[in-house]
Design a protein that fits this description.
N-acetylmuramoyl-L-alanine amidase activity; 191 residues; LysM; hydrolase; SleB_dom1; two-stranded antiparallel ribbon; LysM_dom_sf; 5 strands; three-stranded antiparallel sheet
């Protein structure tokens, strides 16, 4: 009996202490009468200008019943996961290249073509070689962590790039059919 209670206690402690893999999902907010972009942004702890940019609003006016997209707000686990992915995918690339790689992942969370969470996008099939080869388990550099923070602050200002690859290391007929949005270092970014 004591052994059974002890095992249940350990299981309970572990369930509360392990990081949750998918808490940052696409969020939307339905505008209520009397709300403003500022009030909504404050409620969710995100910048009002970012909410405005994410919803292609040239002015701050909104209407009751309107559905607004909100920026991804990841948990500490997810920030670390994204930072480790950026480190593994963009090691040796410029800081701008690292920000762009993180931005692609965040754009995918917002896109209907991919899973609705950071964890889901990063672990989506064979999308990212560091997930497949295990290099995502390596710690992120300070620069990769900083790049992720910048990409999070940049959400809504560039939702174009959904793909990237290094043409010297990979060939893809699927990606060659996509429109190039930019080139940074060894990576080509596409939509």
């Amino acid at each position: 009996m004591f052994k059974k209670i002890s095992m249940l206690g350990i299981a309970a402690v572990l369930s509360f202490s392990l990081p949750t893999p998918s808490s940052a999902e696409v969020q939307t907010h339905t505008v209520q009468k009397g709300e403003s972009l500022y009030k909504i942004a404050t409620k969710y702890g995100v910048p009002a200008k970012q909410v405005q940019a994410m919803n292609n609003k040239n002015v701050a006016s909104i209407n009751p019943g309107e559905e607004l997209q909100l920026p991804v707000v990841p948990s500490e686990y997810e920030k670390d996961l994204l930072s480790r992915l950026v480190e593994a995918e963009a090691k040796g690339e410029s800081y701008a290249g690292k920000v762009a790689v993180a931005t692609v992942v965040l754009n995918r969370v917002q896109s209907d073509l991919f899973p609705d969470s950071l964890h889901g996008v990063i672990h989506d099939g064979i999308q990212f070689s560091p997930v497949l080869n295990g290099t995502i388990k390596q710690p992120a550099s300070e620069e990769s962590v900083k790049a992720v923070h910048e990409a999070l602050a940049y959400q809504g200002y560039d939702r174009e790039s959904l793909y990237f690859y290094n043409p010297d290391k990979a060939q893809s007929s699927y990606l060659s059919s996509k429109e190039v949005t930019t080139r940074i270092g060894n990576h080509v970014f596409l939509r």
